[in-house]
Amino acid sequence: MLRVPILSWSRRCVAAAEDSLGGKPLPPSYMAEYSVLGFFVENPDEAVRVLKEGGFSMGKSFGTDEVLVGGHADLQRIAAVLRDKGMGMELADVVDGLYQG
Predict the structure, then answer these.
(1) I want to staple 99 with a disulfide (CB 3.0 to 4.6 A). Which of 16, 30, 44, 57 is the partner?
(2) CATH architecture of 14-93
(3) Between residues 93 and 97, which one has the greater pLDDT?
(4) Sequence spans of domains, the chain
(5) How many CA atoms lie within 13 A of 97 on its CB side?
(6) DSSP one-letter code for 26
(7) Alpha helices in 1-101 (DSSP H)
(8) pLDDT digits over 22-34, tens only?
(9) How far is residue 99's CA from residue 53's CA, in Å, rounded to a whole number?
(10) Given phi > 0 = left and psi -120 to 50 = alpha, else beta, which region is 10?
(11) Distances in Å between the alpha carbon of 6 and those of 11, 12, 33, 38, 74?
């Protein structure tokens, strides 16, 4: 199972990446060696509630809520559950901004 953090679109920045990394060191080169996927939503607390109600297994790591994903079908189901509740979601790399600059 892959643990995917649920983060706010407004925190799609270095702070969000640092939260999801939990103090683990970054590799020296961008993306070729390292990537962290995250679900970006408007309201993470509401998304967590909706996903729990939808039967998804949830966790928490370093203060960040995570949904446990077993495969592609889970990703499709997560998107459908959030969409049915009128919530947008983007699956994106959490660390993509860290090596810019």
Answers:
(1) 30
(2) 2-Layer Sandwich (3.30)
(3) 93
(4) 14-93
(5) 10
(6) P
(7) 14-21, 44-53, 72-84
(8) 556 555 555 555 6
(9) 37
(10) alpha
(11) 11, 11, 22, 6, 15
Tell me the β-bridge partners of 65: 60
28-51 average pLDDT score: 80
CA 94 vs CA 4, 14, 16, 84: distances in Å: 10, 8, 7, 25
Q: Is the pLDDT of residue 14 over 80?
A: no
Q: For residue 58, which of 41, 73, 45, 43 has the smallest C-alpha distance? A: 45
Residue 101 has pLDDT above 50, yes or no: no
Q: Are strands 90-93 and 37-41 parallel, antiparallel or unpaired?
A: antiparallel
